[in-house]
Specification:
By secondary structure, the chain is an alpha/beta fold. It has helices at 43-73, 110-122, 131-140, 144-152, 163-174, 182-203, 205-221, 228-258, 264-293; strands spanning 4-8, 11-19, 25-29, 32-37, 79-83, 90-93, 98-102. The protein contains 9 helices and 7 strands; from the N terminus they run ββββαβββαααααααα.
Length: 294
């Protein structure tokens, strides 16, 4: 059969296809890749055999890097799964400690795989792309911005689809089924709310600080010599600061999800969220001051 080429770890190697009456396999020897397939095998069979080999090669390389970065970051990975991914090079589910790696990474230089592994393991410490996450990468992988730029020079194929189709697919994946009504819809909404509060408390130090402030001020309001209406107002402005911080955290999460690059509009969005929280805290001081000091 005529020879072609395959790319492994950033280098191109001759591919030799051999018709062999045995289980399909791939071997790498003497600077070439040999694909053994049964006589008469079609292109789909050859592609499936190569994909299985890519997964095995990526899994072995990632295992060594995961062991290295677990020790460096003080985290533990429960499982790593190579898989086809349409829009990402990797993903992480912090609460299950599972990561996934795009099988296309086997075609990239080894240092780019290491960047993706370091990136995903850093999410086990910080689930978002905020300042704390960037600080971890700056400390442990200073060249991460260069590595990310090199990866994005040739992004996963699906990123080249229209932005509209991508947004629709994301929306369909995160929105609750529209068929839910009544009690089922209410129960689902409560679940989403609990998940949102848990994510904010775990990933945002500012939200934890506001929770701590409320834990002090709300009980204190019951001991202040004020009437019921004034007490309700004092508690309401405290709870308002929690609501504002949830919105502020949501804005930061969305901005960080879109891109880690510094951009004036991203900065404006985060600054306005912080400004809203500053106004809410000033409102607490004003209301409590007026009521208690007359």
């Amino acid at each position: 059969m005529p020879a072609s080429e395959v790319t492994i770890w950033g280098r191109r190697y001759p591919l030799q296809i051999v018709a062999l009456d045995a289980k399909p396999s791939v071997t790498f020897e003497r600077e070439r890749v040999i694909l053994n397939v049964r006589p008469g095998s079609d292109a789909a069979c050859r592609a499936a055999t190569m994909y299985a080999w890519h997964k095995s090669v990526l899994r072995a390389a990632a295992a060594e890097l995961i062991e290295k970065w677990q020790a460096r970051l003080g985290v533990s990975v429960a499982a790593c799964t190579p898989r086809r991914m349409e829009t990402k090079w990797g993903s992480c589910t912090p609460h299950t400690r599972r990561i996934r790696l795009n099988t296309e990474l086997v075609k990239k230089p080894p240092d780019l795989l290491e960047y993706v592994v370091a990136h995903e393991l850093a999410h086990l410490r910080v689930p978002n792309h905020g300042k704390a996450f960037v600080a971890i990468l700056d400390e442990h992988y200073p060249a991460w911005r260069e590595a990310r730029a090199r990866l994005n020079e040739s992004p996963p194929a699906a990123r080249r689809k229209t932005a509209t189709k991508h947004r629709e697919s994301i929306a369909m994946s995160i929105l609750p089924p529209k068929g839910r009504t009544g009690l089922a819809r209410l129960i689902a909404a409560i679940g989403y709310s609990r998940a949102g509060i848990a994510a904010a408390f775990k990933g945002e130090a500012a939200f934890r600080q506001i929770v701590a402030l409320n834990a002090v001020l709300v009980p204190l309001a019951f001991f202040c010599p004020v009437n019921r209406g004034e007490r309700a107002l004092m508690i309401a402005v405290c709870l308002l600061s929690l609501i504002v911080e949830l919105f502020n955290s949501a804005i930061e999460a969305v901005v960080d999800r879109i891109s880690e690059e510094r951009h004036p509009l991203s900065k404006n969005a985060k600054d306005m969220g912080s400004a809203a929280q500053s106004v809410a805290l000033a409102l607490i001081a004003a209301v409590w001051g007026v009521i208690l000091l007359g």
